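Backbone-to-sequence.
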């Protein structure tokens, strides 16, 4: 399952796998310790998990679910949910801005802020259809959402009128990611395989709309830690590595993954989730086959595979230091 370049180029992304000397130890430790380090958190949701979000400075973990709940866990202590709040319908995404501030959205169309210290729930506003994607932008000090109403919206929770920008999208939003400090970048994957890039300094206009290099429906998009490019996955067991700048885009490639051959039949699984390690630049993929693979995008090879889970992987997230 080594990635196969789409254009025969061997040079990998500048922003992935830079700490080469650490990759071997990272991969070896991940493979050797996977079984003993797997822990199931106490008090899980009662229905499917839709999204995960770690706090930027701690091991607090936010999980949203189809059971209408959003739960905050201490992943180290593992003593069950520290707090739980509910929407009126299934929750499709969530974001933990800091140890006490959570945001979420879902089928009830509401964009919700929750103070975990005071257990206070506040509505920032609504989309005209389901809220599919929620993220917190430290650059903007704001919440970015995208929905099935084909819009991306920016909300300032400090303002009396929270809605700051509304940007039109070419279709329903399926996935979104927001760049780190100083990157001023939002990328949204929509229906019909569109990928929309925004410069947050020039909202609400999009800086570029392109078509995904993958031929089937987009499932997940995640930016490189340095913001120079992004990984995009599809329902057809493939991942593409693409770049923000037109010059770097010449180095894009795609590869097959999360497939299994049974007899003469190849079973192809959707790649539901992507997550980049914050330090190494390596990334993980999770699929409906119940597997998590860790890849080195620069070397174009798989580093390790974690033990198979009983069910498909719906969401992935590294904590602040990737441990």
């Amino acid at each position: 399952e080594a990635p196969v370049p789409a254009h025969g180029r061997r040079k990998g992304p500048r922003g992935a796998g830079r700490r080469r000397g650490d990759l071997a130890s990272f991969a070896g430790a991940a493979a050797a310790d996977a079984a003993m380090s797997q822990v199931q958190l106490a008090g899980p949701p009662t229905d499917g998990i839709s999204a995960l979000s770690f706090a930027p400075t701690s091991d607090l973990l936010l999980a949203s679910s189809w059971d209408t709940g959003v739960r905050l866990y201490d992943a180290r202590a593992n003593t069950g949910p520290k707090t739980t709040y509910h929407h009126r319908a299934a929750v499709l995404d969530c974001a933990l801005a800091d140890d006490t501030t959570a945001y979420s959205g879902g089928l009830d169309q509401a964009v919700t802020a929750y103070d975990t210290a005071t257990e206070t729930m506040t509505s920032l506003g609504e989309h005209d259809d389901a809220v599919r994607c929620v993220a917190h932008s430290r650059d903007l000090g704001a919440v970015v959402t995208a929905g099935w109403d084909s819009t991306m919206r920016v909300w300032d929770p400090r303002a009396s009128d929270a809605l700051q920008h509304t940007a039109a999208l070419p279709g329903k939003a399926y996935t979104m990611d927001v760049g780190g400090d100083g990157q001023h970048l939002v990328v949204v994957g929509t229906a019909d395989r569109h990928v929309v890039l925004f410069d947050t300094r020039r909202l609400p206009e999009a800086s570029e709309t392109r078509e995904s290099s993958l031929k089937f429906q987009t499932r997940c998009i995640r930016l490189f830690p340095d913001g120079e490019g992004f990984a995009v996955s599809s329902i057809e067991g493939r991942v593409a590595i693409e770049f923000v700048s037109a010059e770097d885009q010449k180095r894009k490639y795609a590869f097959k993954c999360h497939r299994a051959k049974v007899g003469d039949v190849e079973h192809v699984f959707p790649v539901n989730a992507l997550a980049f390690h914050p330090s190494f630049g390596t990334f993980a993929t999770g699929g409906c086959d119940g597997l998590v693979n860790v890849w080195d995008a620069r070397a174009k090879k798989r580093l390790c595979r974690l033990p198979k889970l009983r069910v498909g992987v719906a969401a992935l997230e590294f904590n602040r230091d990737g441990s």
